[in-house]
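During the reporting period the student researcher (J.K.) took over the structure-prediction task from the postdoctoral fellow and processed the backlog of single-chain submissions. One of the processed entries is reproduced below for the supervisory committee.
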Amino acid sequence: MIIYPAIDVKDGKCVRLVQGQFNAVTVYSDDPVEMALKWEKLGAQYLHVIDLDGARCGEPQNIAVISEMAVKLGIPVQVGGGIRTIETMEIVLCKGIERIILGTSAVKDPKLVKHALQNFENNVVIGIDARDGMVAIEGWAKTSNFTAVGFAKKMEELGAKTIIYTDISRDGMLTGPNFKAMEEMVKEVGVDIIASGGISSIDDIKRLKDIGVAGAIIGKALYTGDIDLVEALEAAK
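J.K. obtained the following structure tokens:
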């Protein structure tokens, strides 16, 4: 199981939100690149980076700092937030970024997803953010009519190989993941599932590994010190 330290970028800074609320921001570093290098030095194999401003306004806003991150790191980076056109995908992937995450665009434009998967295949990850089992979009501001599992199956049919599943109610709360929902997703959908939201202890990581997820994204718990990255990497082996 791969551990993905998370870096959320807002106004060029490394921040964390609580349940995706833009009025509940904590700044952890003025230099996201420095933070990325710190996680790499501690042994991270992959980084998960979200352009929060991009997610909110519909196109990437922090691409300069994120591409600097990708260039300076010796490990791959996956990026999400405002990637909603083929042109944007091409621009982002040309910046040294390994994988792009499609969230809102996947819900609103299945043809775009199909086209992206045909063109970029292994460089595309689908991000499913769920609130009460329903898929949320546009920086979590709106809720769609899709169930998380139903939508995941639809993405699998289109050729998706990897899905990031985030439970919004748990995100930034340090209350533990929604294990029941995660287990259902792993059981029902035949692609790699990366768990996100609420992971707050080494026990959480061990339990997710037992469930069979392919990866776990850890955000706030790394910044508060609730999880030590070196221990997390060991638990995921």
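The committee noted the following: The longest strand covers residues 2-10.
J.K. will present the remaining backlog at the next meeting.
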